[in-house]
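pls design
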């Protein structure tokens, strides 16, 4: 079974997504960007995909301006993975957000987070039952 991570600061609100994903994947749920970064440092090469909430509290090892006061903490995490863990980058990623996907895409470009392995999805438009297929499509997509 493929191992994926789900990064969010609200376990209760993510529960439906995680349960749907468990039918197809081994899911490691991580509360926040700091826990996710530490986990990826230890287990990164075993992870096949990531689902990352865009908005989360700023971790202790970052300044508020680095995460746009929490509005881009998930993107901050991806930038850290890209810079510090080149062996696993690019990783197939689904960014879940309540913000405009255009705003998130602009922030990705501004942060120079590269790779065609990232898909941005609005939470309200992404039902839990659909997420496993979306993640699998990211995994199956050829790099480059």
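designed seq:
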């Amino acid at each position: 079974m493929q191992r994926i991570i789900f990064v969010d600061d609200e376990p209760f609100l993510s529960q439906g997504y995680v349960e749907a994903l468990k039918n197809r994947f081994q899911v490691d749920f991580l509360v926040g960007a700091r826990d996710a970064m530490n986990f990826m440092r230890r287990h990164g090469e075993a992870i096949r995909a990531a689902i990352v909430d865009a908005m989360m509290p700023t971790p202790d090892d970052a300044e508020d301006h680095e995460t746009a006061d929490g509005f881009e903490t998930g993107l901050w995490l991806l930038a850290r993975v890209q810079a510090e863990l080149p062996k696993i980058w690019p990783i197939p990623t689904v960014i879940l957000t309540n913000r405009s996907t255009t705003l998130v895409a602009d922030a990705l470009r501004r942060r120079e987070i590269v790779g065609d392995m990232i898909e941005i999805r609005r939470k309200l438009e992404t039902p839990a039952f659909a997420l496993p297929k979306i993640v699998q499509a990211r995994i199956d997509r050829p790099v480059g």
